[in-house]
Write a structure and sequence with these properties.
With 446 residues, the chain is an all-alpha fold. It is 67% helix and 1% strand. Among the domains are: 1-147; 291-446, no CATH class. The chain has helices at 15-29, 35-45, 50-61, 69-80, 86-99, 103-116, 121-133, 137-147, 158-171, 175-188, 193-205, 209-219, 229-243, 247-258, 273-288, 296-306, 316-326, 330-344, 349-369, 373-380, 394-410, 414-425, 439-444, and strands at residues 2-3, 9-10. A two-stranded antiparallel sheet has the order 1-2. A hairpin with a 5-residue loop joins strand 1 and strand 2. The longest helix is centred in the last third of the chain and has 21 residues, at 349-369.
Length: 446
């Protein structure tokens, strides 16, 4: 057995394997694009390293792609063939739960690991990730509050704790505490993409658009070698420009930033969940503002057809539908809904979430873009209060609320318009009257 750089013990006969494992974890914390060679180095050092196989499974699951499930199951089987400590066996149980469609149980296991071993930053960070994508902002906050007293700048990875502290506080509406932690994370490491992202959320939710643009632009020189999270930061930059009415800049950022498919080093992944969410949600916002987006929906719709039946990312499903509906692919849209219904009949918490929340939200998106606005309202109204369970931040969830608002306005359903305006006004410090997607509705209600 050997200890990692934070004093956590791993079951392996190879000190080199643990050092390589540290590099993989550091790459994960830093959102680095070179995770495969880092992972290959661990496996080369000790092919029987159980936690390395477990981590390989985690990395596959993080893609929220059904094509990764066989590889994740094979990684879990390899991990189980290796002996491990009680903590390592708990990691394997968490991976098993995630694979079987119970991400919340996986997060609960990681939370327990972090309580017992507060320097196991992998367990903490995975819980933070999955709690976010299952809409459990309260759990994110409780988690960071539970372990932060065990951390200091003397430990590698401390900046990541600060970044998570920022994002957890932001998603719970504690913007002052969030910003202090996020800026501290950037002082520790200016290349911290999660810290940069967390502060970007604070600036979005507090209506500081010009400050947000300056924040993102100033940090970009530090992002060489970063993965798709930098695309999401460019998406945030585009949101700020959208609010300022500069739609030409938004489209330029779309084409050369967060949906740039031309560069294998910096461009978006064609169908990675976060890249798809960035693109579809921005195009829908532009659609509502009557901005001509040309044929930009087409390549997204092509990718959507290839992912019909894949329901691993509940929040991405209505985004896929935006692309299909915007391009008039009614047959593909019907097949997508059928695939969601079939998946929803399976017996897992993820299947139940798709059936009860993602499906009506996705049906509402289709109805909205087909002009069936009463149908859209009827589908989404019962689940408005549950949309958070799909995951995604307040800034990301906003596009689904705009779908509801758009249909309410076009159906002249004034009660629903008021309902939605009250909903967003209660969360964002900036009045709806001063937000691009809500100003017209706010004026119509006086």
């Amino acid at each position: 057995m050997f200890q990692d750089c934070r004093g956590v013990t791993y079951t392996t006969d190879s000190e080199q394997a643990v050092a390589a494992f540290d590099r993989v974890v550091d790459g994960y914390l830093g959102y680095r694009a070179d995770m495969k060679p880092r992972m290959d180095a661990v496996m080369a050092a000790d092919p029987a390293f159980g936690m390395a196989h477990c981590l390989q499974g985690y990395l596959l699951m993080m893609g929220f792609n059904a094509a990764g499930l066989p590889g994740a199951r094979a990684a879990l089987a390899a991990a189980r063939r290796a002996a491990g400590t009680e903590r390592e066996e708990a990691h394997k149980a968490a991976l098993d739960a995630w694979i079987e469609g119970d991400p919340e149980r996986a997060a609960d296991i990681w939370e327990q690991i972090a309580r017992d071993h507060p320097h196991d930053i992998l367990a903490f960070r995975l819980a933070h990730f999955v709690n976010f994508w299952t809409g459990r902002a309260d759990a994110m906050l409780a988690s960071v509050r539970g372990i932060e007293r065990h951390w200091s700048a003397a430990l590698p990875g401390y900046g990541s704790i600060l970044a998570c502290r920022c994002f957890a506080h932001e998603e719970n509406g504690y913007y002052l505490e969030a910003e202090l932690a996020g800026r501290a994370a950037i002082r520790v490491n200016p290349a911290d993409l999660w810290g940069a992202h967390a502060v970007a959320h604070v600036l979005e939710m507090t209506g500081r658009r010009r400050e947000g643009i300056a924040w993102v632009e100033a940090l970009q020189p530090h992002w060489d070698g970063g993965n798709n999270l930098k695309h999401h930061l460019w998406w945030h930059q585009a949101l700020y420009h959208l609010e300022l009415g500069d739609t030409d800049r938004v489209l330029a950022l779309y084409d050369a930033g967060f949906r740039d498919l031309g560069s294998p080093l910096t461009g978006a992944a064609p169908d990675l969940y976060i890249d798809v969410q960035n693109a579809a949600s921005m195009l829908y916002r532009l659609h509502r503002l009557r901005v001509d987006v040309g044929d930009r929906w087409t390549e997204l719709a092509d990718k959507a057809e290839g992912r019909i039946g894949d329901c691993q990312s509940a929040f991405t499903l209505p985004h896929w539908m935006m692309a299909l509906a915007a391009t008039g692919r009614d047959d593909a849209a019907s097949r997508m809904l059928a695939g969601m219904r079939a998946f929803g009949r399976e017996h897992s918490p993820l299947a139940a979430l798709v059936r009860t929340v993602a499906l009506p939200a996705t049906e509402a998106v289709l109805a909205n873009l087909q002009g069936r606005h009463l149908d859209a309202l009827a589908a989404m109204r019962p689940v408005l209060g549950d949309l958070y369970r799909l995951g995604g931040s307040h800034a990301q969830q906003d596009v689904l609320e705009q779908v509801f608002l758009d249909s309410a306005l076009k159906a002249e359903a004034k009660a629903d318009v008021r309902l939605l305006l009250e909903r967003v006004a209660g969360r964002c410090r900036l009045s709806p009257a001063h937000r691009a997607g809500y100003a017209m509705a706010a004026r119509s209600m006086g």
